[in-house]
Amino acid sequence: MDTEHRLDATEIKACCALTYQSDAARLLLGDSFHPGGIRLTEHLGALLHLEPGQRVLDVASGQGRSAIALAQRYSCQVLGIEYGAEAVQQATQAAVEANIAHLVTFQQGDAEHLPVPDNHFDAVICECAFCTFPDKTTAAAEFQRVLKPAGQLGLSDLTRTDEIPEDLQGLLAWIACIADAQPVDAYVRYLTEAGLTITMLENHDAALQEMVQQIQGKLLGAELLQRLQKIKLPASFDLEQAKKLARAAKAAIQANTFGYIALLASKVN
Alpha carbon 3 to chain centroid distance? Predict the structure, then answer.
């Protein structure tokens, strides 16, 4: 982003956390707040060769769906770090309800200052969140710091191939993981400069297209239900602005401005 569009880092983090804790976010995004959903999460787990007893860190864990799914599928020990306190509480409750709290725990924290020891985790996972971190250089260094030697990072995120359109550069676009999407080589640079080695990169553009289509469908459904007085959307939720953002995002995806990738990176020393 250029200077005139640059937003305060604390504002971005707080607004992202509040939005992803909201009922409106759950309405639009379901339980899994990223393209590909749990299917892509479990795919990352398979690529990381997760095993019982391994320690996994889920950075920006949201309401805990990915961390819970990984623990259920691979019997690994997962710690989720999330900026929003309410989301941590919701995720903790979800783990209890899923009878997996013996393997999954959640803690409030900042991805740029992870509250965990050095060289502690076999794997780190970060899904559709790295692009929202204001200080990506520091966040990448934190991934490297907390991984054990030979530990691996599994990351999925939004990419761009061109300048981001003007109508996708505001605060709502930051919250929707759009406004600071990076070219693929920028993600690679952040991670390699932090001391990680890229070992795999996959294209998952179809998952992004599917998610935006689902969101547009849910927005239309929410508008209809609101008119019929079957639901009451939160006062802070601007339906028209959300519809406009979704249309702009879909157009940018169709123009190949946006894509979605999954990558693996390893810590060499």
Answer: 25
